[in-house]
Amino acid sequence: MEAPRLEHTYLSNLLNQRVTSADGKILGKVQDLVIDADLPQPEVKMLVFRYGWDRKFFSVPWESVANIQEYGITLKSDAIPESPQLQPLPESHIHLKDFLLDKQIVDVHGAKVERVNDLQFFISDGRLFLLAVDVGLRGLLRRLGFEDAVLRFFLWFFDYNLKEKFIAWNYVQPLSDPDRLRLEVPQSKLADLHPADLADIIEDMDVHERAAFVESLDEEVVADVMEEMDPKVQVSIIRGLGPEKAADILEEMSPDEAADLIADLPQETADDIFEEMDDAYEEQVKDLLSHEEDEAGGLMTTQFLALPPDKTIVDALAHIRLHADEVDVIYYLYVVDAESRLLGVTNLRELLSYEIFTPLERIMTTRLITAKIDAEAEDLADLFAKYGFRAVPVVDDDNHIKGVIRFKTLLEILAPHLGK
Length: 420
Hints:
There is one protein chain. With 420 residues, the chain is an alpha+beta fold. It folds into three domains: 1-178, PRC-barrel domain (SH3 type barrels), CATH 2.30.30; 194-290, Alpha Horseshoe (MgtE N-terminal fold), CATH 1.25.60; 299-417, Roll (CBS-domain). It has helices at 11-14, 96-99, 137-144, 147-157, 184-188, 195-203, 207-216, 219-226, 231-239, 243-251, 255-263, 267-276, 279-289, 296-299, 313-323, 348-351, 360-363, 377-387, 407-414; strands at 8-10, 18-20, 26-36, 43-51, 56-61, 65-69, 72-75, 93-95, 104-107, 112-115, 118-124, 127-134, 166-168, 172-174, 304-307, 329-336, 342-347, 371-372, 391-395, 401-406. The strands form five sheets. Strands 2, 3, 4, 5, 6, 7 and 8 form a seven-stranded mixed beta sheet that branches. β2 (18-20) and β3 form a beta hairpin. The longest helix is centred in the middle third of the chain and has 11 residues, at 147-157.
């Protein structure tokens, strides 16, 4: 009587199980499975086992498998060639034991790093599909052979059923092999993560994984993520990159954020990065670095929207659309003369409330609340608290606008002291 076929199984159940021929001859033991990770639902494409008296590794296509049973895997009668061999793999194929088991992965749904204790498969018409990774205690116990005993103990002693903890494969981003980070399918899963979630994930990685992971991401994505990170982690990442790559990332950041980061770098490292940086951006960052970091000049961003007073609302809206990706403050539009003296301010609500050919000088507010370059953080906090602005312009003694302070930036400076 044929043994019942499994509907699902685990990698731990298959590793070291017997591989037998169609006539019942024991050929070896399972060493690994190979999947095609480019498929939406990764499928096992190859079986790897030790074969023969000299215990050489041997691989056969999964089509050579006749059936999977609890005691092992049986091959078809024509599956064994004359000599053992490991077949070359396409780039999208990965060895599960070597690449995933006991390795760290990113759970892009829970936005955290987990360690893989086991892998779950489902079986359909003789084909084996990777369903999920097991990151729970039960996965580890299963591999050690203690799962049933420990489950019974917990149920008897604590009246508690130890729960399984799976992460579906479509929420998994492998980390273990830097070369494999270029796989397009897993990388695409990160695109929908909020930068703050991605920052948490990267902070959970070790130094080597961080470097490989950051190298694999687009500079714009890294820049958004860096702005959400702990400053010590920022410095660690930038120091692990080459000056050119570091400069590319910093140029995608807000100048004030980039200045804060560079201020924490060794001078030699900062100089190397400046050499690779765009001249105009370098000038902005160095200007910010010339001010104390807890004063308005050190907190402001130099990326804001400004237009002359004779421009109309339709000009302003076109200007906003053109520069929206480049500026840090988009709600306010500052009205300036030819020498960048601040004349007034308007905002998106007002721009959308008037006839589109109305000049800015007719809708701008001229009773301005500004901050001086040397204004301290505590005074700036009073300003924001009193007027409820999202951002405040910074001017010099001649009323030239030099930058804009965002409430978010000020809060980051003051937050550590709020509980004191």
